[in-house]
What we know:
By secondary structure, chain A is an alpha+beta fold. Chain A has a seven-stranded mixed sheet, sandwiched between helices. Chain A has a five-stranded mixed sheet with strand order 15-23-22-21-16, with helices on both faces. The longest helix of chain B has 14 residues, at about 100-115. Chain B is globular and about 45 Å long. The chains are: A alpha+beta (about 725), B alpha+beta (about 150). Chains A and B meet through helix 6, helix 8 and helix 17 of A and helix 1, helix 2, helix 3, helix 4 and helix 5 of B.
Amino acid sequence: MTKIKTQYNRRSFLKISAAAGGGMLIGFSWLTCCVSGGKTEEALAIPNEWFEINGYIKIGDTGLVTIYSPNPEIGQNVKTSMPMIVAEELDVDWNNVIVEQAPLNTGFYHNQVAGGSQSIRKGWHALRMAGATARRMLLEATAKAWGVEVIALTVSGGIIKEINGDRTMGYGDIAVQAVAMEVPEEVELKDIKDFKLISTSVKNVDGKNIVTGKPLFGLDFKREGMKLAMIQHPPAFGMKVKDFNEAEIKAMPGIQDAFIVDISVPEPGYFDEKGYQQLVAIVGDSTWQLMKAKKALKTNWEAVSELENSEDHMKRMEGTLASGEMHESRKDGDPEAAFKKASKVIERTYSSPFLPHNTMEPMNFFANVTETSAELIGPTQTPQALEGSVSKLLGLPIEDVTVNMTRMGGGFGRRLYVNFGVEAAAISKQTGAPIKLIYTREDDMTQGTYRPAYLTTYKAGLDENNNLIAFSVKGTGLPESPVFEHRFPAGTVDNYLAEKASTHTNITTGAWRAPRSHFTAGAEQSFLDEVAELAGKDPIEFRLELFDRAISNPVGKRNDYDAKRYAGVLKLVKEKSNWGQSMPGIHRGVAAYFCHNSYVAEVIDIAMEDGKPKIKKVWCAVDCGIVINRDAAKNMVQGGVVDGIGHAMYSQLTFKEGTPQENNFNTYRLIRHSQAPEDIEVFFVENDIDPTGLGEPGLPPAVGALANALYQATGERYYHQPFMSLKTVMG
Amino acid sequence: MPEYKLRINGTSHNVNVDDDTPLLWVLRDELKLLGTKFGCGIGQCGACTVHFEGAAVRSCLIAVSTIGTSEITTIEGLSEEGDHPVQKAWLEHDVPQCGYCQSGQIMNATALLTENPKPTDKDIDNAMSGNICRCGTYVRIKQAIKTASNQ
Lengths: 731, 151
């Protein structure tokens, strides 16, 4: 066992206990809402009394245990996997566990964020410690009651037993005494080999509620006396609202209020709105009446900056790459001389367009702002940032702002940004009532915080023996460069150059699932495929040779990957997919990528059916350390694969005079059932390394493997996303 | 506002709404049946799928004035205990990620299986392609439909 110092004190528990009492309520019983895994018939009776052991755990007098899941749930399934870690160390039967979403409590929980695939990685120690601490306190209370030493006791499934005796004690029976115990200064964690729950497959704790249509999401939240609200933002980036037909709108049926609302906050932070600061807001009784009022809006807009076009975007990025303004971010050896000396040189340029997040649940938030307080409830990936922004907007002390999280109908990075929550607060304040703000799909898609557009040129030089002796990458984007200068293949080649620069735009952009990696993996991995082909080498063997170099004799001082683990996933996918075996009618592509602390390699099999590529199977090999919830982890990787393939194949947002040209799913294409892979199989590298996340890492390599399989199937290389233009698909 | 008497999940409901109000917003705003989801408002995503006399329809496109005495079933009315074979298959395959689109997927799949109890992969693709899953659970949805079709 590992002994670790606890970081708890009694005060921090009391703080969370108080906050948890006023938690999230959606008008139906939390017990029917949150009983885990559809195992209600096996669970213990509903307790009469609950005992707060610590901020993560509450034990009922019947032995039923409530575990609070600290982080926002956007579909990455942390609401199941984070409590699993607590339950493992607590040593309790999962059938007797209820999961509840914890409220925002910055004084107690760490990192209440859904972003960067970090929930499990950053939560791992705190969650284990919470379970182990509670287990220790329950054991100590029992030892005291029986007049024995803790060492004389053993525990399994929430039942404490005397090793050399017959006495047993249920957690529910000793909980009342356990809460009075001193919090131990040091606790023992389980040996990884003794895990019973971790690495098994546990069903989604909200599964039953989802398939029966229970109101779990922000859009489902209702409060007595609440009004609904909608906004209208400018039609184009670069425009600002002047005025609108206020009297006419206010006179419409079911409309109470209409006004221009200002959401600018002093000293805006990373998650605050950078685009539209003033919006038309309409408040009313029903969604449909608000939608009709929105259609009746006659608004005067004024241009305040350039109205941009997609054609100019590409030219602007090309201009940046050709300019002398590139910033050299890494240089090993003498790339210039090496390229001159090389017997073969290849250079290719890759691009990807702006993309909206398009969570299925459009942006929405509930806000109840009074003179002295603000209460916010809804879907946010960054509750702490929202709390801060609302506090600044309203000039209220931070302790008078509360934020509670609902389940989210998708995040993908969009809900890291807090504008919709801030808008809800500003509207509630101005209209003087609790309101729920609802975006239409058009609002959601055209007022985005989009994935930036990118353009990158790769260049490689081979010597006469087809060894890679020079490599360069030069990238820009609107507005950020996608280049990761310390990632593979840096460290594997003697002469290496990375250059980057930003390109100006007034289109608002931000993090989109696997930021930059989603583009870079596709570009770099399909470029390496072409380099391997030029070298006359198998694409997997070519990469493994590079990793051998990075393992035995790495180039440079800093390389942001573990070459052994990287090679490990490639070897695993090679084995599982029977790479190298000829399969008639099947065209294969491979890619591997490391981002967000996890390693993933993928092989995609394509067959041509009716002249169109059909993805028959995707093979995935994943190294994320210890796998917490096996089947759910596979689901995450499968989703990432579909997301990566879908956006690379079909999706783009274009602009004409600042106006997004696609604004709903009739013009904007998302991957659908018939275009999805027929099968996706996921394999894990088994090891005892501390776990890392999976929300993002499955996506990026899919783009490269797809481009490489498409090349095998069609004989054409795909450099520019989306690979299937509307013309290709429609014929 | 006119009054409409609707048959939903086997029960009669009276609502006073504008005649062009889509069924989706009658369900969500008036009747508090929140399992039917809003995704696009133009019949392109399938999140709002319900049964209209047993057939899958997009409730965002159906004006309340056109419903008459037709029987509407929503996800809340699909089964009493959440134990419809399609719902059970969804749980068996642990399909949902975010879960938002799944009630629409389930309603569409149920209508498919009623009409075609043993659908091929192609039948499933054709019937389900109007339902977007942004999380990309398509492979599991297909597996769940096949599991349900064998029951």
